[in-house]
């Protein structure tokens, strides 16, 4: 997991996560901090193992750590976070030692992690999409009644 550790030590990642934490500190709805990122990583890795997808742990954890890296720019500049995240992640992945092919796979997953059309895909992008949604425990959230997620999108049951 050496390359994954390079991601969270990367100055751009750290800066974006610090800005995001400050921006979301009073947010009553889902936050996008390290707890969320690790939940997504673990859920994605479980699915990968259960379905024998064969994706490496570093690829899954790398994608999970980076999938919301563009959130702060979405809040402050109006750039969709999947697009801002893809742009930020490119430099971080390169600096962290991921190969060109791995970078392409992770960047696609980041860019498409909000795309419903990828929801059934067995590749990294589909796994990340599903893990991101499953990571939210709407049924246990005190802000659930005020949340703008549709009832179909909310996770009212625990699933992996």
Automatic annotation (TrEMBL):
Renumbered to this chain, the signal peptide range is none
Which Pfam families does the protein's record reference? Answer: HD
Highest taxon of the lineage: Bacteria
Q: Which InterPro entries match?
A: HD/PDEase_dom, HD_domain
Which stretches make up the HD domain? 33-137
Q: What is this protein called?
A: HD domain-containing protein
Query: What is the species listed in this Swiss-Prot or TrEMBL entry?
Result: Candidatus Blautia stercorigallinarum
